[in-house]
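Contributing: when you submit paired examples, paste them exactly as shown. First protein:
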Amino acid sequence: MNIFKPLVLKDSVEIKTTPEKIWAFFYNLEENYKAWHPEEHVLFKWTKGKPMETGSGYYAEEYIHGKLRKFYGTIGEVVPYRKIVFNHGFPISLASAGFELHIEPKDSNSVFTSVSYIRAEKLMRVLVKFSEYKEMENLIKIGQKHTREEGENLKKILEGKND
């Protein structure tokens, strides 16, 4: 039994747009963050380096489970127009290494995929019982709902601009 095996959450949406337009949305994340998820996203700022470059730092605020959360981190890997890896900073990094955004061309469309990682699933299932979430399934549902809404919102934003 591997108590340190991560839990991987993944959600994809096909968008009628090019990888370049999706990339431009994230390159301008400071301006687009709130529109990406208006009910929960509050603020995103680049704190070090340039947008979408490996090693650049970021700060974000968003509501999760009704509470304002603050995140710090760095960009871990960038493959222009295809992949962005956001690494969470401490203390969030203890529970989650971060998340990845993937962009894949598909005919004249693009598939946008968000992948989140929760460290040590079996250990986290025990620890989360002592948190406000009470059960790991609650935390998973909240994360999946948020990620799905982000994909749907991105689709609406980018397809609306293409009309």
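Second protein:
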Amino acid sequence: MNIDLQLRVQNLNARYVETIDENKLELWPDLFTAEGCYRVTTADNFERGLPLALIYASSRAMLRDRVRSLREANVYEAQRYRHVIGPALIGAERDGQVQAQTSFMVARIMHTGEVTLFATGCYRDRVVLGASGAEARFAEKIVILDSRLIDTLLAIPL
């Protein structure tokens, strides 16, 4: 096991959930490569190889547009997320990239104070490590939800 590699991927995931949980969404797209892909789908669709997604973006620019829409155009009930993520299971490094899988749970906290378990699942990531000392970035992040049911508008990224 390469501890440095493990820590780089876990740090990337920690920064990822921090941008969401602390409402620093403007920083979220910077965790992806320029052509980084972000997709939220269900375990059923993923296992069947279906391309359907609840959220889909194929570039950092699309992620920036999503954040801008959340801030300026979308109307949704005020809420926050709090992620709990497991350790990343990391594949072999190839050409400066690794595959990683990380389990997650997301609690949703409504403006009323109500807290519910909102989503569980796993992240399937392709991480570009970059040159020595450079920050790792997501080339692809697939959010695979355990359940097909989302009880409300999925506005904030998972």
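If you have annotations for the second protein, write them as plain sentences, like these:
The helical segments are 3-21, 43-47, 60-72.
The two ends are 28 Å apart (CA to CA).
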